[in-house]
Design a protein that fits this description.
Length: 280
């Protein structure tokens, strides 16, 4: 019986402590209720007035940079309207640094593409800003394409002028020269025949005069040979102008005309569709 006495005292001490604690709480019940009410009201006001998080929608677009055909001597080559690295740097200054919606403009893995990313609280706003960048690119590149077309059209006009000049001036001038040269050649050939006839008439009676006439005949023959060679050169030049020169110009013109076809002028455009996010 004596061994259980300490345990009973311990439980009695514990019961006294709980009673005291309850008494303290009860004495401060007004303060506790008031603080609880205030905290509840503050929490309710905070939750009620708290702005819900703004949804962020992301939109992505892959832009293919346009191209055109460049004429070089006898061939053509495809040229990108504007180097993507330089274009990306310019666009970053114009749009990313000054626009909170456009978040990134970078060169894609393929050098003829750039990637544009935007973020906004709706797909419509994010898409609209990307289309604004796209519109800027297209307007700029269309101006470059127009300049290229104008240069090609000017080249065609120059070729047409050359062809007209060959047909209406150079060939006509050569034809006139050939005509004059032919008449002159005929006259000298008649003179040569006349000289030969005189030589036959005097060769037996006047040897000295015959010798002079023979020298005259030799000079006439050499001069006639020279006229014939010149005439051959004129004909060759005429044929060259009519065939090779004009044909080369016509081929060059056809090549440049083919470069003016719509398929050889491509403005920058979005590949496929804008990639939008269904959920923020």
């Amino acid at each position: 019986m004596q061994k259980n006495i300490p345990d009973q005292n311990f439980y009695q001490d514990d019961e006294i402590d709980l009673q005291e604690l309850f008494g303290i709480v009860w004495a401060k019940k007004t303060l506790i209720i008031g603080m609880t009410t205030i905290i509840t009201l503050v929490a309710g006001i905070y939750v009620f007035n708290k702005t819900p998080p703004i949804p962020i929608y992301k939109v992505n677009a892959l832009i293919e940079i346009g191209s055109y055909q460049l004429y070089n001597s006898t061939s053509t080559s495809k040229v990108i309207i504007e180097p993507t690295i330089e274009l990306s740097k310019k666009l970053n200054v114009l749009f990313v640094d000054r626009n909170e919606v456009i978040t990134s403009i970078s060169v894609a893995k393929h050098n003829s593409f750039i990637d544009i990313k935007s973020e906004a609280n709706s797909n419509e706003i994010a898409s609209r800003e990307i289309l604004s960048v796209m519109s800027f690119i297209r307007d700029k590149h269309q101006s470059i394409l127009n300049d290229v077309k104008n240069r090609h059209e000017l080249e065609i006009k120059k070729i047409n002028t050359k062809i007209d000049n060959i047909k209406n001036k150079e060939i006509k001038l050569l034809v006139e020269k050939i005509k004059i040269q032919t008449l002159s050649l005929n006259d000298y050939e008649l003179l040569l025949k006349h000289t030969e006839k005189n030589i036959k008439a005097i060769e037996s009676s006047n040897p000295m005069l015959t010798a002079l006439k023979l020298m005259e005949k030799r000079d006439l023959f050499l001069f006639i040979t020279k006229l014939k060679l010149q005439l051959i050169d004129m004909y060759n030049e005429k044929n060259k102008l009519e065939t090779i020169s004009i044909d080369n110009l016509l081929k060059e013109r056809e090549l440049i005309l083919s470069m003016l076809l719509p398929r050889n002028y491509k403005n920058s455009e979005i590949v496929g569709q804008l990639v939008t996010s269904d959920y923020p």
